[in-house]
Amino acid sequence: MNIFTGISDSVQLMFRRPRRGQFAALCYRIAEATGEPEILVLTSRDTGRWVIPKGWPMGDKPGHEVAAQEALEEAGVIGQPENQPTGTYTYQKGLGDGVAVPCQVQVYALRVTSQVENFKEKGKRRIEWVSPAVAERRVHEPELKRLIHHFSQRFSATRG
């Protein structure tokens, strides 16, 4: 029995495509005036949704280095990424042919130490520093919302 009988070819492809892996940077800084963390969010180039810098694997480069490279290229920020992922989230990556591919994203916290004036995707995205609560509201993926929330709890615990 074929479970795909009567289902369109594009939907069949979506179910048969393996989950792809990506790496992302959860970029943060501590606001001098308040001592509170701020999270960097940016808009995606295609849909304009609020996201964090992320990208595909780069050869044998470790995930935390890929995340740092994506943060530089997409948002012009430089910092020190943690070597271990802060967490993961999944989402559906829309491809040019209208098919969505499931992606699992390993997220690495990156404390931003500087910003550069010129970077690869300058002018192609909106970039903003916001509170963790605002970042949670802006991103669409429920798992990413939770990851940001749990990450921000690190700072509450150290002040409490």
From TrEMBL:
PROSITE patterns: NUDIX (PS51462). Gene3D superfamilies: Nucleoside Triphosphate Pyrophosphohydrolase (3.90.79.10). Its cofactor is Mg(2+). One of its GO terms (cellular component) is cytoplasm. Residues 18-152 form the Nudix hydrolase domain. One of its GO terms (molecular function) is pyrophosphatase activity. Keywords: Hydrolase, Magnesium, Metal-binding. This is NUDIX hydrolase. It comes from Rhizobium setariae.
